[in-house]
Amino acid sequence: MPELPEVETIRRGLEEKIKGLTIKNVEVRLAKQFQGKATDIIGAKVLSVRRRGKVTIIDLSNGKSLIIHLKLTGQLVFRHDGRSFIGGHPIPFAGTDLPAKTTHIIFDFTNGARLFYNDLRQFGWIKVLRSEEVNTTSAIGKLGIEPFTNDFSLEAFSPILKRSSKPIKLVLMDQEKIAGVGNIYANDALFEAGIDPRRKANSLTPSEGHKLFISLHSVLKEAIKYGGSSAADEAYVNAAGVPGKYQDHFRVYQRQGQLCLNKCGQKIVRIALSGRGTFFCPHCQK
DNA sequence: CTGCGGTCCTGAAGGC
DNA sequence: TGCCTTCAGGACCGCA
Questions:
Q1: Assigned fold of A4-141
Q2: Quick check: pTM over 0.85?
Q3: A82 dihedral zone (left: phi>0; alpha: psi -120 to 50; beta)
Q4: Cβ A72 to strand C below 7 Å
C-alpha cells in the first residue's frame, strides 16, 4: 500500500509531468471519492505537487488545492496520447489500458494529457480545498514529524517513544506522531534496529531509540531509491503505471516462514498486532 | 487516556 | 465446478 516512499515516488513523477498543465475537465465516476466541486478546478493551472506524510497535495493557480489520500489501493497514473513516461521518454508498457474498471476519477488537461485516479477498494479520496486550508485540514493538520526534513531529529524522536506505552510498531505507524510510515516500513525498520515490534515504546533504551531512528530513516530512503514497493497483493504503481522494486529488498515484511536475512537460522514469524500483519525474527529482534 | 471492535471495499484463498 | 465464508488493511468513529 502506498506509504511515504510510494507517495513520494508518485509525487516526483507527477510533478514532472503535470506542473504547468491546465485542467480542462474532471470526470467523477464515483462521487464518494471526490469531495468538493469539480467545477472549482477547471481552467486552473498546476503550480506544484507536494507531499505531507502519505497525502499528495496539488496546488492550483486559482487559490485551490487538491489533496489526495491513496489509502490501500489508490493509483495516480499519467498518460499522454495513451502512453506513459519516465522522464521525458515514453515507455512501451505501463500496465493495463486506462480507464480501467477501477478508474473512478479522470483529469483531462488542455494539452490532451490525462491523469487517472484508480482505486480497487475505493478507500481513498480526493478533496478540493482552498490552498490556505491545506495545512489545517484534518488529514494534514494533525500529522506528526515529517521524515527527510529538519523536524525529523533524534531530539524530536526520543520523546515520542518516551511518552507512549503502546507497542513500538504502533507508535511508528501513528500518523500523528510520525507522518508517512505504514506497515511495511515499520516492520522493516524494527528488524533493522533489532527491536521486537511488541516492545512498549517507553521501554526502549536511548541506544535502541537511536538505532531505530537511524533504521527508520535508512529504510525509507532505500525504499525511495527503489521506487517504493509493490508486494504480491498490492496495487502500487508510480505515476507512469510502473511497479516499485523495494519488495525485492524486504527484510521481514511478508517473509513469514522464510529464513532471517541475518543468517541466524531462524524463520520470520507473522503475528497480528492491533489486527495488522506484523513480521519479525524472534531471534534477532528483542 | 487506552483499547477495543466496526466500517468502508474488493478479490483471493480456503472449505466443502 | 461453484457457492459460501473469511480475510487483509489506513484512518476514523463510537463505546466501554
A1: N-terminal domain of MutM-like DNA repair proteins (3.20.190)
A2: yes
A3: left
A4: yes
